[in-house]
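Q: A reviewer asked whether we had any structural model of the full assembly, not just the individual parts. We don't, so I'm hoping you can provide one. Inputs are below.
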Amino acid sequence: MARDMARAFDASPNPYTMLTTDFRYAGMNQAYLDAVGRSRSELIGNNLFEIFDAGGQSEQARENVRQLKNSFERVLQTGEPDHLALIHYPIEVRGPDGEPRIEDRYWSATHTPIRDGAGEIVYILQHTTDITELQNLRKRVSGAKDSVAVADLLSSNVLARAEHLQSDNLRLQSERNRLLDIFMQAPGFIAVLTGPDFVFQMHNEAYAALVGRRDLTGRPLVEALPEVPAQGFLDLLKQVRETGTAFEGRAMPVQLSSGPGGSLRTHYLDFVYQPLKDSDGEVAGVFVQGHDVTDVVLAGERQKLMIDELNHRVKNTLATVQSIAMQTARSHGEPRAFAEGFQARLMALSHTHNLLTRSHWEGADLAEVLRHETEAHGLTRILPNGPSVALEPAQALSLGMIFHELATNAAKHGALTSGDGRVLVDWALENDEVKLVWQELDGPRVTTPEHRGFGSRLIERNVRHDLAGQCSLDYSDGGLVFRLTFPLERRAS
Amino acid sequence: MSIPGLAGRRILIVEDESLVAMLLETMLEDMGCVLFGTASRVPEAVEMLSGDDLPDAALLDVNVAGQTVYPVAEILKAKGIPMVFSTGYGQGGLSDGWETHPNLQKPYTEPMIQQALMQALGVTTA
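A: Here is a predicted structure for the entire assembly that you could use as a starting point for your response.
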């Protein structure tokens, strides 16, 4: 039977040749040998493109070789037969004098994959027809005046159609390549999954980057991305497959590994699972397309946190201002005095805010806080002396209020009322504890006030409550002495 | 103006800003309440609630120096002491499970505190 087949093959007037997958001659019939003008021993085992180079190194020759090679590659890639309706492929033949020469030839070829028992493609069967005569005649008659009938007779229309078909094929091929390029380079991630196990058929660069460049092609989802199915995505894919309706996800969180054995990272994805239907309307696969919107989602969360924090601070500041207004009103019954005292305290608060804004609310230096709150009374009259001390924002605000109250009091009743009075502010840092002394000199004689005003209550509360420290106010003959101790790092409780 | 139903009630304040704490103290005194104590930090408040002497109600700032006040709220709940929250975050500023308690938004007025405390204590205006 096999021998009968081989004899039939050899006897066929149609030229056939079998090529290995690396384009070496494995066999051919007599018609093929006649068509190319070669003997069997010249061809067997040799590469087709080494024997027939389409006429050398010209641009045209290279293009011809490329077309033929592409047709073979398509057969190997798709496993489907490929047709070359018309290919210009000159070959080397021996002339009547026995000398080799290049002869222009036109061919029409069909390439069919031949598989082994395991289904692997092992050969390409080429069925080729030399149509040079038809082509030449067509060219000749197209120049003649009464050529129409002859041309028809010579099937020039058939050739023209064949030429068109071939150029259509080339156009479609380049269109397909262009689409593939767009697909591969698209900024969004794209993948095609097929079958009930969702096997990766193809995926683009963005998808590879998203999943940490793991081996995907040809592998089912559960194997390729083992962390994904348990997160509900397999159920979603099954649902799309069963219902045939697309699923759209918005900012959906997914934990993805950064590579094989890599650590998990949360991504937020906008994506679509689009069912791919075959000619029977059955869902054959799922087209996955989307964008990683992690940065957008995180920025949104940060913004919400910042707005919450801003709201919290504004409302707290309003409550603080409300408190200042109420307490000031209680100690200053007269509207003018109230307005003065209230405004001065608001300005004190504002000064420290300005200072903190400069450091983006990271903190402020003690000497700076003192200077900001007291410079209105003259820089030469309040004399600071101490090391650099970095205060946290809350500590800076508290000390600002304290310095303001002390300076206001000094200007009303103490050392700053007369031209000669001065205030010495000395501080030191010991074991992370700030020890500060505010000493008024050369002012009027002072006595302990009968009534504790808002100012002194505010000072004491700030020290105890906000600074977790201790303080004392001594009204000695020489002037007021205020002593303050507070921890720099506020300990819990 | 002393308020019947609130007069003599001992109130705990948890608030990190001394000026705001002073405002609350003044308002509570005006209503005839007695100050149980003011804590400026969560551990301080927890300590104040560790003995047998307990307040009748508490006013809790939700965000206390960067910490949430819920550990204090848990103790109060366990001991059956009514509480009022205050927050700068507005509606939705309270975590799950605490929304049933009165929630004041800063800044607040005396009548707002009075109403919230009466609601927490189950006192009705006659």
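A: Points you may want to mention in the reply: Chain B touches chain A at residues 16-23, 26, 38, 40-41, 43-44, 47, 63, 65, 87-90, 105-108 (CB under 8 Å). The first helix of chain B runs from residue 18 to 30.
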